[in-house]
Write a structure and sequence with these properties.
2 helices; elongated; 32% strand; two-stranded antiparallel sheet
Length: 117
């Protein structure tokens, strides 16, 4: 099928569909099927809209520091679960991953723990 025309709301040929679908209408396309000798009119509609914040992609070889407050136990548990899932995925894939955690000792000094899988 070949697309010969793409029309946006407000252009000639979209009035009836604009009245029917309103702001949900993105465009109207006319496709031509040579084998069946048919012209097919299709519409592109918005059916759902939600707020979205773009994610951040961090390269695999990038070292990232994360500071979690002492009282943030729920967040710490979520991070630990995520670290465990990354380690398990790496082990399954036969890759080596080093995860380091830094904590504070009872004396106030820093304690660094590295785990390599």
């Amino acid at each position: 099928m070949k697309i010969k025309a793409t029309l946006h709301p407000g252009q000639n040929g979209t009035k009836q569909l604009t009245n029917q679908y309103g702001d949900q209408l993105i465009c109207v396309r006319y496709r031509y099927d040579k084998a069946r000798q048919k012209r097919i009119k299709t519409v592109e509609l918005i059916i759902d809209e939600q707020d979205w914040i773009p994610g951040v992609t961090i390269p695999c070889d990038k070292v990232v520091s994360l500071k979690i407050g002492f009282g943030e136990t729920e967040l710490r548990e979520k991070v630990n679960k995520e670290i465990i899932s990354v380690l398990l995925a790496a082990r399954t894939a036969g890759k080596t991953v080093t995860v380091g955690t830094t904590g504070t000792t009872a004396c106030g000094g820093a304690a660094v723990h590295n785990v390599t899988y």
